[in-house]
Amino acid sequence: MSSNLLRGRVGVVTGASAGIGEAIARELVSHGCPVVLNARRRERLEAIRQELGDEDVAIAAGDCAESAVIETMLNTARDTFGGTGKPAGGLRDADLVVINAGRGLGGTAITSDESQWDDMIRTNIVAASRMIRAAGKRMLAMQPDSAIGHDPEKHAWLKAPRDIVILGSVVGRHVSPFSSFYSATKAAIQTLAEGTRRELGPKGIRVTLIEPAFVTSEFQGVAGYTTAWYESMVEKFGPMLMPQDIARLVAFVVSQPSHVHLSDALIRPTRQEYP
Ligand SMILES: NC(=O)c1ccc[n+]([C@@H]2O[C@H](COP(=O)([O-])OP(=O)(O)OC[C@H]3O[C@@H](n4cnc5c(N)ncnc54)[C@H](OP(=O)(O)O)[C@@H]3O)[C@@H](O)[C@H]2O)c1
Questions:
Q1: How far apart are CA 192 and CA 240, in angstroms?
Q2: Distance CA 27, CA 92 (A)
Q3: If you measure from the C-alpha of residue 258 to the centroid of ligand 1, how many angstroms do you get, rounded to a whole number?
Q4: Which of 101, 103, 167, 199 has the fewest C-beta atoms under 10 angstroms from its C-beta?
């Protein structure tokens, strides 16, 4: 359902060429928030831009672990969409950054494919950390200390919500029996998100961790799960979540008034009892 709920916000979504990231980007646009899309497969991002239009979508393709790509994402957001409701003297930076790009890997430290370790750690932990740092610094710069307080008449932050939303996983909290090494990367993200929330929350910036369980997407193929295994999981736990289920949750979280923070949301298919 479309609305103007997020009109005036400026969004960035990493890992937006497929799955959860694409669904979040579409959801934000449907609520009036223009977004910069990032992922490595540029042609997929171009197809989404063609469909949704230049007014709502810009592209910053590339590996989200590279600092230069992160800077391009944030600069593109500011230069393309930061003019709406801008303060005197300049363009606004992104105020709704979704750190979604990530990947799974079946197995444990002993059984998983070691050749995939560096890529998983780099995408799930290093890239997310770099984006938290880069986006967090820009959001802090938009938030003078004098603006932080409880009085809506005096304190501008109460009219300008700022969000960093991070995709963790249920298995970062409840160790996965199928992929404990991947779990370890999402446990790291859980700690990083909570630490950053404690640092930035008092300055009026919400840092939210979304922890999904099984969501049907390209994730299963990238993680190396066989079709037969995933079908057995669907049999046991299904219907699985779909990317749109996560996107609706993200839109709900970021559309709350600035003083309301649903900081951690764990979302499962109803029949999935564990993990
Ligand atoms: N699906 C699940 O069951 C599940 C459950 C819990 C948490 N999650 C988390 O949710 C997030 C999204 O997962 P998903 O299910 O949507 O997976 P997906 O369908 O495989 O999509 C992953 C997205 O990340 C992008 N990506 C991967 N590596 C990248 C890199 N180095 N630089 C830029 N983009 C990159 C991919 O695009 P390109 O290949 O074009 O770069 C793609 O757009 C991940 O963090 C995942 O760990 C998923």
A1: 27
A2: 22
A3: 28
A4: 199
Residue 22 Cα to ligand 1 midpoint, Å, equals: 10
For residue 64 and ligand 1, the question of a CB distance below 6 A is answered with: yes
Domain borders along the chain are 11-267
pLDDT tens digits along 233-250: 999 999 999 999 999 999
Q: What percent of the chain has pLDDT over 70?
A: 97
The residue whose CB lies within 8 Å of the most ligand 1 atoms, and thus the one to mutate among 100, 208, 233, is: 100
User: pLDDT for 65-121, tens place per residue?
Assistant: 999 999 999 999 999 999 855 445 568 999 999 999 999 999 999 999 999 999 999
Q: Is 218 in the pocket of ligand 1 (CB under 6 A)?
A: yes
Alpha helices in 3-158 (DSSP H): 19-30, 42-52, 67-81, 117-121, 128-141
d(CA 80, CA 197): 28
Q: 29-69, pLDDT tens digit by residue?
A: 999 999 999 999 999 999 999 999 999 999 999 999 999 99
Q: Does domain 11-267 have CATH number 3.40.50.720?
A: yes
CA distance 126 to 224: 22
**Could you tell me the distance, in angstroms and rounded to a whole number, from the CA of residue 25 to the centre of ligand 1?**
13
